[in-house]
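Worked problem 6 (solution included).
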Amino acid sequence: TCGFLQEAREEALAEIQKLVEQKQAGQLQKILVTGCMAQWWRDQLAQRCPQADGFVGVSGYENLPQVIDQALRGEHPALFGDIDAPIPETDRVVCTSDYWAWLRIAEGCDNRCAYCVIPRARGSVRSRAEESILGELAALAKGGYTEEVFPGINLSSYGRDTGTDLAEIVEKAAQVPGIRRIRLGSLEPDLMTEEMIARMARVPALCPQFHLSLQSGCDATLRRMRRIYDTAGYRAVVEKLRAAFPGASFTTDVIVGFPGETEEEFRQSLGFVRACGLSKIHIFPYSRR
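Solution. The predicted structure is:
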């Protein structure tokens, strides 16, 4: 489940209802609800999903076999764990494609944006250990997965808790035999320093496509959102990346209808987005969390 948007929660509840109907028809035995919505609604899940047989939050996925055993024995497990715990990595089955795979290198976020519930559902920033990342990269490359995508809620902050940074892990990842391309997930513009950009520009395997989170192109709206940058700072990062990566493309997220947004503020945001020359924008209406 996803707990970020109201629409996502409604979609999850609808899917759970479909499973309930399948269970009543004898097509499945047990239903376990897991993920962000489960974590966020941990105190309400029994009431909201009364026909589910167990719940698992965003921590403790490595204990899923035991949770399944408990459910099959007729128990009703509820495992939520510590959202600030270190990132556990277990054996995995890659189901993306035959040549690329996700490789999580960080979890959590320390920002407190006004619209976002993620830090309260997924915890503070935790960087995965370098040796663990490089070890899994080597195994993926050996299995034919030569392109890796590094996701993270606040990917730019990788290494701030361990004394390293995103540029260093990109540099080392590119040296793993068999790795041909590295893609980065969503980046926070305020953390993209000139030094970081210059170092990453020297990594030929890094795909020059950058998802820089914007949310609004109006400074007044950004302040109400409690974002850490303004439009001038965002534009400066775009230009620095363009200079370092000729031909780079940029994508972003924009929230429309944030509380207090006027027609004039919306037009400012629209004008800023046009001026930045972005390739693609994920646009969604404000949703109460």
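Discussion: The chain has a mean pLDDT of 93.
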